Amino acid sequence: MTDSLISIAKILNFHGIRGEAKLGFSKGREKQIENLKRVYVLKDKNYKELNVSSVRFHKHFAIVKFKEFQTVNDVEEYKGCDIFLEKTKVEETLDNDEYLISDLIGLDVFDEDGCCIGKVSAIGENLANNLLSVCDANGKEHLVPFVKELVPVVDLKGNKVVVNNIEGLIN
Questions:
Q1: Who's near 10: CB < 8 A, 6+ residues apart?
Q2: What pLDDT is attached to residue 129?
Q3: What H or E segment, with its residue span, contains residue 145?
Q4: CA dist., res. 101 & res. 6, Å (int)
Q5: Cα–Cα distance for residue pair 24/21, rounded to 1 Å
Q6: CATH homologous superfamily, domain 101-163
Q7: Domain ranges of the chain
Q8: Which residue from 4, 15, 127 is spatially nearest to 63, judged by alpha carbons?
Q9: Among 74, 84, 154, 161, who pairs with 5 as Cys (CB 3.0-4.6 Å)?
């Protein structure tokens, strides 16, 4: 089951006295959070199914009422725990040119001439965009901005990424 679940939020605290949970989540995922019906919470290495009865937003957080939580104490028990959703449900909400990090790790990286550069070993972030960390055959890491101009092809079925290897990007 754990391979089919993706972390989408975290229970930060309770909200009010009726068992509502304050959830933190990534910016741009409001629609995904808004449409939640059933999720899983991880506590002490065990997953518990939770059913969502309502979702609303307050500032930059989601206020979620789970059917299983009736009091502040119910929420408090899960404070700091991650909320997971089935991978297939997450994939349904992705926009074009949006990918799950877990799907990108391990992809072969080729330049525009078809020469193998290495493999995607990690995904990082900076203020402007995500970065592909590409490990070459010598074990050297190269950071490639994950933008369409430099990474025009992501082929999950073909298990590859094509990088426009401009001068100085990957030596």
A1: 23, 24, 25, 80, 81, 82, 83
A2: 85
A3: strand 141-145
A4: 10
A5: 10
A6: PRC-barrel domain (2.30.30.240)
A7: 2-92, 101-163
A8: 15
A9: 84
Q: What is the pTM of this model?
A: 0.71
Name the class of domain 2-92: mainly beta
> CB of 137 within 8 A of CB of 163?
no
pLDDT at 1: 53
The Cα–Cα gap between 130 and 123 comes to 7
Which whole number is the average pLDDT over 152-158? 93
**Per-residue tokens: 24:** 């933190």
b/e code 97-117 from CB counts within 10 Å (16+ = b): eebeeeebeebbbbeeeeeeb
At 44 the pLDDT is 93
Pairing between strand 108-111 and 160-163?
parallel
Compute the average pLDDT of residues 157-170.
Answer: 86
| Tens-place pLDDT, residues 79-131 | 999 999 998 888 888 877 788 888 899 999 999 999 999 999 999 877 788 89
Phi, psi at 89, each rounded to 5°? -70, -40
Instruction: Tell me which amino acid residue 87 is.
Output: K
